[in-house]
Amino acid sequence: MIIAIDGPSGAGKSTLGKMLAKALDLLYLDTGAMYRAVAMAVIRKGVAFDEKQKVVEIAEKSKIELIGEPDSLKILLDGKDVTAEIRTLEVAQSASVVSTISEVRRIMVEHQRTLGRNAPKGCVLEGRDIGSVVFPHADLKFFLTAKPEARARRRFEEDKAKGRQSTYEQTLTEINERDERDVSRQDSPLTIAQDAVVIDTSELDLREVFEQMLGAVSKAKGETA
Ligand code: DC
């Protein structure tokens, strides 16, 4: 079973994707982490993001691995654990820039398809283009969204809990900038797949969203049985 979860940043994709993967015993793939790892590699090598050919070469040569259970997922870049490092604001913005390069996307999509297809019981993938490009024939597609203010509030609280220093206003600006780039890029922009189950999580708590998702899974299983 392939389950696609797309949506803008801060809509709850990671938390809910992990919950779903655990409940259904499926592999969990955080595809945003893969773009973040490429961005990290580019930063480390001191290459400018507008040197597209060099960025593509780095994407091609970098070994990106996602290891472990959903709750303790580790991201390895060329064998080194970068799980924490890729969560900075700088890497988030850089990943959004790197992800506008078509050739980088092609490499990532291929990698994601291979990982998804090889998962013995199936896979939950979360990102921006899973239902539209990576697995257009996924068994089930979700599009999770929420008002920018609600997403910024959640991100801000998460960051605060992790001891990061930023203000709510900075977080909101950052979310709006990233939304704009993710929605307006030429190649595979963030879109709602026609057959996606759309859930606005602005006014819902995790449990409520999760129950709606489980309901959709049961329905999809019933339809394919
Ligand atoms: O989900 P995230 O915040 O970790 O993603 C980081 C960036 O990567 C995001 O701004 C857009 C990009 N991305 C993408 O273009 N396609 C995906 N499938 C996942 C992420």
Write the layout of secondary structure elements.
Blueprint: E1 2-6, H1 13-24, E2 27-30, H2 31-45, H3 52-61, E3 64-67, E4 74-77, E5 80-81, H4 89-98, H5 102-118, E6 123-127, H6 130-134, E7 140-145, H7 148-161, H8 168-184, E8 197-200, H9 206-224
Parallel strand pairs: 1-6, 1-7, 2-6, 7-8
Antiparallel strand pairs: 3-4, 4-5
Bound molecules: 2'-deoxycytidine-5'-monophosphate (DC).
Explained architecture:
By secondary structure, the protein is of the alpha/beta class. The chain is built from nine helices and eight strands. The longest helix is centred in the last third of the chain and has 19 residues, at 206-224. The chain is globular and about 50 Å long. The termini are close together. Residues 9, 31-33, 35-36, 92, 95-96, 99, 127-129, 178, 182 line the site of 2'-deoxycytidine-5'-monophosphate.
